[in-house]
Automatic annotation (TrEMBL):
Protein name in the entry: Haloacid dehalogenase-like hydrolase domain-containing protein 2
Similarity comment: family membership: Belongs to the HAD-like hydrolase superfamily.
Keywords annotated in UniProt: Hydrolase, Magnesium, Metal-binding
Taxonomic source organism: Labeo rohita (Indian major carp)
GO MF annotation terms: metal ion binding; phosphatase activity
Required cofactor names: Mg(2+)
Amino acid sequence: MACRRALKAVLIDLSGTLHIEDAAVPGAQEALARLRQAPVTVKFVTNTTKECKRTLFERLRRLNFDIQEQEIFTSLTAARNLLEQRAVRPLLLVEDSALEDFTGLETSDPNAVVIGLAPDHFNYQTLNKAFRLILDGAPLIAVHKARYYKKKDGLALGPGPFVTGLEYATDTKATVVGKYRAGDEGKINPPPHLTCDSFPEAVNHILEHLLGSK
């Protein structure tokens, strides 16, 4: 098959693109299977912070997606890499199901604050502890800063409002390691060739126009 463009890899989002909680997006498994047949590398990236990479991988396998754990790169992985680079001890405001991705890090006497999606820990006591650490000089690290995310029953608050609240209260700016906001594709230079409304639509375009032959 003669390639029309030098397309070497496809980066695929997970939540909202392949699945929403425990339900696959219609047509997503079939679209991924078709893409796997093309001469292009496939990798997966996600802002998901409510569960560790292993649990996320197992969820995707239960939904019959053709995917390997080592193909997934998460914002939790990016956060851990940054913590190791800075050699800091984090206060982890993440769900208990996400803690596995931080195994082995020293967390006693924290001198950094990490915030992901943590509905069970977004309470006054924990946020005030984070507030005081930041006032004492601890860096604020946001796994991502999404305002909301999609659940099966509707939209739900993301970590962004809590990160912004701490930024305002402490007069500091967070280091954001994950993806940013909807609309950021408009800031890319050069601009994107095309934006699609669904993963199957994107795969159709890739196969027909970027990897296809006349």
